[in-house]
Design goal:
- By secondary structure, this protein is of the alpha/beta class.
- About 25% of the residues lie in helices and about 30% in strands.
- It has helices at about 65-75, 90-100, 115-120, 175-185, 205-210, 230-235, 260-275, 275-285; strands at about 10, 25-30, 35, 40, 50-55, 60, 65, 105-110, 125-130, 145, 160-170, 190-200, 225, 240-250, 300-305.
- Strands 10-9-8-11-12-15-14 form a seven-stranded mixed β-sheet.
- Helix 7 (about 260-275) packs across helix 8 (about 275-285).
- The chain binds zinc ion.
- Zinc ion binds next to loops.
Length: about 300
């Protein structure tokens, strides 16, 4: 596929505060292409430069696929991305510590509806918000399906707010994090809870090897990377109190096959020993020289915030 310049946006200012003066550029993802679904997406010449806002404590890609280009790629790969079953037992236990059933729930990015399915008995109203309606999600909704992006300037929805909103693996996809926070503040009831999980750009693993090598930043659809400081700051700005915070592994490690966990452990041990040696061995094996995902690295953040 040829690279069309209009498919990529140059982003020199911070997506949160919009300033350029607080942004420094560092590191470049210089692969020839992103892997995506069953195919690849070519990366423009010069790679993907990474930026950091020293005021907001976020990191972000300074070259992003345009929203139209991204949706076209998602439609192409529909069904090949995010179709792994997960029971959300840990996340549901966490919700139950704060709020008594039955409650109204909105799942942002419900994918195939696994969370809505597993939490059904605890809810009155269960809704989903996504740009594309996964073929399997409809049967698990008992409320509304809000078609759109959480970071849209204008969202069209019932206007009846929710007790609980889950936003798992969504905050890294934003073009406009300020719109997303403003929407969350409207979608949640006063005293309601929003649960967020996203990658941690401040994790020791990311700091040690550089964000440009982090598996999470090498995903085509991931645009920005949060720190604890950044999440706490936006929570306060939009009228939320943080009631729980922890660092954790990505939830994918709870559903990966044992064989993949073992092979990832071996690969990441070799990477820790020497990234150079890792790359040489992989090169001679004819395999990807990219940094492996480690099952034991807590490179994610989990936060529960309550609307004041
Ligand atoms: Zn900023």
């Amino acid at each position: 596929m040829s690279i069309n310049k209009s498919e990529w946006l140059e982003c020199n200012s911070c997506p949160l505060c919009k300033k350029t003066s607080s942004v420094i550029q560092f590191g470049v993802i210089n692969d020839a292409a992103y892997s995506f679904g069953h195919g690849t997406v070519p990366i423009p010449a010069g790679g993907i430069p990474m930026g950091r806002c020293n005021e907001c404590h976020i990191q972000f890609k300074m070259r992003l696929p345009s929203p139209d280009y991204l949706s076209a790629m998602f439609i192409n790969e529909a069904g090949n991305v995010w179709d792994v079953e997960y029971n959300y037992r840990r996340e549901i236990d966490e919700i139950m510590r704060y709020i008594a059933a039955p409650f109204d729930l909105l799942d942002v990015g419900p994918s195939n509806g696994d969370l809505l399915k597993n939490i059904a008995l605890l809810t009155k109203r269960r809704s989903g918000l996504d740009i594309v309606k996964h073929p399997k999600v409809g049967t698990h909704i008992k409320g509304e399906f809000i078609r759109g992006l959480l970071d849209s300037k204008k969202l069209s929805w019932s206007g009846v707010p929710y007790d609980v909103i889950t936003v798992f693996d969504v905050f890294e996809h934003f073009y406009h994090p300020d719109y997303a926070m403003a929407n969350l503040a409207k979608l949640i009831k006063q005293g309601g809870y929003v649960l967020i999980e996203t990658g941690d750009c401040d994790s020791p693993w990311v700091k040690k090897y550089g964000i440009e090598l982090w598996w999470y930043a090498r995903l085509f659809e991931h645009h920005m990377f949060w720190s604890e400081e950044a999440l706490r700051k936006v929570a306060k700005k939009y009228g939320f109190s943080v009631v729980f915070f922890k660092r954790k592994r990505h939830k994918r490690w709870h559903y990966e096959k044992a064989s993949f966990v073992i092979s990832s452990t071996i690969r990441s041990a070799l990477w820790r020993l020497s990234p150079l040696l890792f790359r040489k061995i992989r090169y001679y094996q004819g395999k990807s020289e990219r940094q492996p995902r480690s099952p034991f690295v807590a490179d994610h953040l989990f936060m529960i915030m309550k609307k004041d």
